[in-house]
Amino acid sequence: MNSNASNTQNPLSGAASGGSSGTAVSVASPTFSPLYQQIKALITQSLQSGEWKPGELIPSEIELASRFKVSQGTVRKAIDELAAENLVVRRQGKGTFVATHHEARSQFRFLRLAPDEGVPHYPENQIVEVKRLRAPAEVARMLDIKSGDSVIFIRRVQSFSGVPTILDDLWLPGAIFKGLTAERLNEYKGPMYGLFETEFGTHMIRASEQIRAVCADEQVAQLLQVAAGTPLLSVERVSFTFGDKPVELRRGLYLTSHHHYRNELN
Description:
By secondary structure, this protein is α+β, with helices and mostly antiparallel strands. The protein is 34% helix and 29% strand.
């Protein structure tokens, strides 16, 4: 408790401390943020460091208020924003938990392809290829690593009710995902992001996507079992973990004859 308190005093008082020099105050003032955002940043640091693991209960608002020496209302506002960003999940009567990709609600955050009829469900995976290679320049740039650094390339086909619907190409930083093999991916029956979270300590918290219409070439058509030239939706995604660090580049081709891409704008 004492170590936590000493660690939190400086970040909270930094905007006001600045010393006796007037110039120090003027330099510090542009970095000022509301108190609840500073608490949010400190809680996020604890999530990033693994103090509270995915799926675990975090301390109550009262306990956090005592730890950070702020009001319970300030903590509640910080937790509200973390919940809105899907970093934590509130459960009525149980408390607040660290979000995990093993929950169905989290899985469908990153799977936006929904059936035209029926309820969304998770697809079956077929791993086509897994290999370690040197990052091409474009892939390295998007993953914020050096060209030629080790990356793991994964190609898979995802099917709904036995119908191939998504062809995914993924690039992952090799330094983070050491030991990831086709055998491990085939053995694992849950969502891929759940595997990344559990075995590689990498929790995807947000993604940026670009979407365009394309036509299936011969190779893609064969893997998706459609005719060459079939219209497809191309979705390029970069996924980020804590600290806005990119940890996955994914390029997916979606067959939308019986599905649609769904997004909610808030």
